Every structure is written in structure tokens, then in C-alpha cells.
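Input (structure):
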């Protein structure tokens, strides 16, 4: 059985439609339309829950505890939740942050809003926000949520992932504990899938991401995570199929990953197609893509051209992602040594905690076919960042094994 519905808002009025459908035969078990004022939003929730309970002949206890008594703040919070779980990319995260700021301004005691804001900072760190700053802000938001409501398991878990004494074991344990208590916590599914791909547990990452696609079939988020995990696992056909589905749903990130994969495997025409699609989706000029690909493929001048192009992209960057993502071209075009050199420079002296090299590490694992994890630097890096401690604690990742007491990776 599937619950379908929609919400329309005009000023202070809401129209909520809901229907319960038997997926086996398409039969409508129940449907209803509610025309109410915004102030009645909690009553609508109880009415819908009660009607569905009756339709299913179940007896459910109505939710007594409200996350906030401010209906406007709650509406903003719900919009932020929808943005985080139904989309992938920069806009979804930034929109959610803005909505939560407005919700908290209306109700400074809104614990769930602080909890979700911790997740927003978790996702911005190392991508749109300096990673150590993101770690600090995520920890502060999560601990604030716990001060207001000590029962929030999500806040407790994300506070642990952002703890000043961070390590991989702590982060995995926190997210896995959260998913034990709530197996359908989409943000935790996404974030643990990301961590597993980065750390080498590709097939587990794919299972988590596949759960997102079942929970949110019209969201590109699950297909993005699924595509990354499958590519990292060497399941290229399945990975590209997942990313193509994400691209159909409008994800420019999925389009960019498809272009990178094609470049790595020498399929320049496919790479040009997806890069042009990605640039169109992001409002950029797609006419520049073909000349760029042709220039970097020149065997005599391609590397020098690429160096200059990356420098120009970084000089024009307006956020952290734009300053880091151009280096991905080194990896997919075969300059693995250059990629590792840059990754080390971006990381600086950070040995524990969140680092701005995080997204480069993830990209490297997604495109392991480049030789990223077989590179001599990889195991040194895994030891430095506590990944080997995680492997010893949790078991061997998919791409490594112990040989005479030492880790060996491919």
C-alpha cells in the first residue's frame, strides 16, 4: 500500500490531498481533501493519520509531543526536510539551511530544527564550507538540539560524528547506531553510504543507497550515492545506470560523474555529451566543453593546457567546491601522481578530524579504475587518516586485505 498526496498553500490557507492506494491492483482504499488554515496544520496531521489508521484497520496512537507549537516554523522545517531528502546538490543544502534559519528565528527552542541544521553543516563541510569550520558548526548545532531535547537520537549521532575527537570508528558507530533505531532515516543512509564508499565498503554503501531509492524514488539523492558506490565497486554498468536515472531526475552532479567516468575510459563523445548536459543544467556555456576535451587530449600540449585551465578555474571560484573539483580532471585523465600531490596540499597538516581533501578522497575511490587506491600514497594516507584503524575494527574493506599482517590494497 502506498500513501500519495500533495500540499498546496495560498497565503495562510492549506489544501492537503491524500489517498491510500493498493499497489497490487491500483484500488483506492481511501482519499480525502482538507481545506484548512495554517494554524490547523497539526490537526490535519492527526486527521490524516487517524483516517489512514481506520482505512488499514490499525490502531495507532496519535503523536502527542509536537516538535514546535509555531506552525509557521514547522512548515519551514518540513520544507527543509523535503529539500534535503528529495534533491541532491548545492541548491538543496543551501535552501534547507535558509529555511531552518527562518524556522529557528520564529522558535529559538525548536530542537528538531537544530538537529537538521547539524546535518546540513555535515553535508556542507569540505564541499561548500571549510571542513574544520563545518565540523565545529555541526557539533554546536547537534549539541544545542540535545540541550533542548535530550531524546533526539539523530542529534546525538551527528554530535558524535562531529566530535572534536573525531575518528572513523566514532563516525561509523554513530551513524550505524542511528540507523538501528530508525532504518529509514534518509540523511543517515546517505551520509553512511558516502562514508562507506570513501572507506572501501562499496557493496554495503550500495545497499544503503538502494534503500534511499526505494524510500524516495523521485529523488536523485539515492541514485547519486548508488552510482558512486557501484562505480567504486567496479560494477560500472550498474553504476552508470543509477547515475543516468539520477540525471533524468535533474541531478547535475550525476551528469558530471557520468562525464568523468566516460573520460576515464576514453569515451570522449559520451563525456562531452554529459558534460554539456551538466553545464546546461548549471547555467554554464556548454559550447566550451568540446574544445576543452580536445585540448586536454593533445598528447604534446594537453598537460600544460590542463594545468593552466585548472589554475583559471580556481582563480574564478566562488566556493570551496569550485576550488577543489577541477582537480578531478587530473585523476580521470591519468595524472594520478598529480592528483595525490594536490590532495596532500589541500589537506595540509590535518591528521585527524574533517579535512577539505575529503571530497577528493571520495572522488578517488569512486574512480578507483584510475589507479587511485593502488597508488603508493594510498596506504600511507589510510594510516594517517585512521582508515586502517576502522578496517581493523570493522573488518576488511572490499578493496584491501591483510598480507602477513599488513594491509594491501588494489
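Output (sequence):
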Amino acid at each position: 500500500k502506498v500513501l500519495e498526496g500533495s500540499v498546496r498553500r495560498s497565503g495562510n490557507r492549506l489544501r492537503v490531498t491524500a489517498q491510500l492506494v493498493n499497489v497490487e491492483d491500483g484500488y483506492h482504499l481511501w482519499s480525502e481533501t482538507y481545506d484548512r488554515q495554517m494554524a490547523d496544520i497539526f490537526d490535519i496531521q492527526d486527521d490524516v493519520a487517524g483516517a489512514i489508521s481506520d482505512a488499514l484497520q490499525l490502531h495507532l496512537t496519535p503523536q502527542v509531543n509536537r516538535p514546535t507549537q509555531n506552525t509557521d516554523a514547522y512548515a519551514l522545517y518540513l520544507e527543509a526536510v523535503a529539500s534535503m531528502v528529495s534533491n541532491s546538490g548545492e541548491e538543496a543544502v543551501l535552501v534547507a539551511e535558509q529555511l531552518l534559519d527562518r524556522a529557528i528565528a520564529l522558535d529559538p527552542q525548536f530542537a528538531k530544527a537544530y538537529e537538521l541544521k547539524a546535518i546540513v553543516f555535515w553535508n556542507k563541510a569540505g564541499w561548500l564550507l571549510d571542513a574544520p569550520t563545518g565540523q565545529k558548526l555541526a557539533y554546536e548545532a547537534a549539541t544545542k538540539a540535545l540541550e533542548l531535547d535530550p531524546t533526539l537520537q539523530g542529534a546525538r549521532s551527528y554530535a558524535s560524528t562531529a566530535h572534536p575527537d573525531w575518528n572513523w570508528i566514532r563516525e561509523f558507530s554513530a551513524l550505524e547506531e542511528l540507523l538501528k533505531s530508525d532504518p529509514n532515516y534518509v540523511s543517515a543512509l546517505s551520509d553512511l553510504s558516502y562514508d562507506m564508499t570513501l572507506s572501501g565498503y562499496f557493496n554495503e554503501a550500495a545497499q544503503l543507497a538502494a534503500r534511499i531509492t526505494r524510500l524516495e524514488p523521485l529523488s536523485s539523492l539515492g541514485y547519486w550515492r548508488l552510482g558512486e558506490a557501484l562505480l567504486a565497486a567496479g560494477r560500472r554498468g550498474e553504476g552508470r545506470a543509477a547515475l543516468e536515472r539520477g540525471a533524468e531526475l535533474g541531478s547535475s552532479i550525476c551528469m558530471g560523474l557520468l562525464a568523468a567516468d566516460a573520460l576515464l575510459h576514453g569515451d570522449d563523445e559520451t563525456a562531452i555529451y554529459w558534460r554539456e548536459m551538466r553545464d546546461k543544467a548549471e547555467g554554464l556555456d556548454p559550447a566550451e566543453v568540446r574544445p576543452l576535451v580536445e585540448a586536454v587530449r593533445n598528447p604534446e600540449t594537453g598537460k600544460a593546457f590542463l594545468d593552466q585551465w585548472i589554475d583559471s578555474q580556481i582563480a574564478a571560484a566562488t566556493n570551496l567546491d569550485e576550488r577543489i573539483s577541477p582537480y578531478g580532471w587530473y585523476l580521470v585523465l591519468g595524472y594520478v601522481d598529480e592528483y595525490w600531490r594536490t590532495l596532500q596540499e589541500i589537506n595540509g597538516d590535518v591528521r585527524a578530524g574533517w579535512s577539505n581533501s575529503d571530497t577528493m578522497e571520495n572522488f578517488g575511490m569512486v574512480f578507483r579504475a584510475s589507479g587511485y587506491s593502488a597508488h603508493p600514497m594510498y596506504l600511507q594516507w589510510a594510516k594517517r587518516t585512521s582508515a586502517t584503524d576502522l578496517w581493523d575494527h570493522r573488518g576488511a574493506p572490499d578493496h584491501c586485505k591483510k598480507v602477513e599482517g599488513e594491509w594491501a590494497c588494489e
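Notes: Residues 58-64 have pLDDT under 50 and may be disordered. The first strand starts at residue 2 and ends at 10.
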